[in-house]
Amino acid sequence: MFSCFGCKRKYADPSTLAKHMEGFCKVLSKTKVYPCGQDKCFSRLSTRKTFISHLKKIHSLQMLTPDVPKLISDDSQTSYDSPMIVETPLDANLSCLGDSLRCFYSKLYANPQIPRNTVQGVAQGLQEEFSSYNSLLKPLVPPENTDFHALLTEVEERVDLFSTERFSQVLTGSHGMLPGH
Q1: Residue 34: strand pairing partners
Q2: Domain-by-domain residue ranges, the chain?
Q3: What does the alpha-carbon distance between residue 172 and residue 136 come to, in Å, rounded to a whole number?
Q4: DSSP readout, 8-45?
Q5: I want to staple 43 with a disulfide (CB 3.0 to 4.6 A). Which of 36, 69, 83, 91 is the partner?
Q6: pLDDT over threshold 50, residue 68
Q7: Measured at the alpha carbon of residue 121, what is the angle toward residues 24 and 90, in degrees to the nearest 5?
Q8: Are the C-beta atoms of 105 and 99 separated by less than 8 Å?
Q9: Higher-pLDDT residue of 93, 136
Q10: Mean pLDDT for the stretch of residues 29-53
Q11: Rounded to an integer, what distance in angstroms lies between the CA atom of residue 180 and that of residue 29?
Q12: Under a CB-based contact definition with an 8 Å cutoff, are residues 54 and 29 in contact?
């Protein structure tokens, strides 16, 4: 995972992190000095543009966080200890995400020790985060990939539902079954 220097959010790939840092990071957008801190580099840059340029030229996008090793382009040099990414179909991943969200929200709403306004705050925060990620993903996927867009929309609708008070009514059984069942 690649971490943003400003807000510490984690991203799966360097290009998504770079886009976040160039325009979406609220912490970096408010700062006046941009400390680098990569590879024991203590450069302090005065503008966001020079900071991003410095990261791209000096440290390359593969080294955006100190805890992530540079990506090796030659397969013969790859260590056996390197993490392996196992690809699964997108619809399976989104289905798992939907199930996980349903389980999380069910437990959150069902816990009597958590005040309702806190539950709503958490649910609303997660909805905003997902919308932010969704707005990053949608432009990157060609419009003709309708399956992907349909799945994103489906998960977004679930997140929207889970963040409403209506979801707690669904849990109590007063409005039928959970979405996706």
Answers
A1: 45
A2: 2-73, 90-171
A3: 35
A4: --EESSHHHHHHIIIII-HHHHH-SSEE--GGG---EE
A5: 36
A6: no
A7: 60
A8: no
A9: 136
A10: 70
A11: 39
A12: no
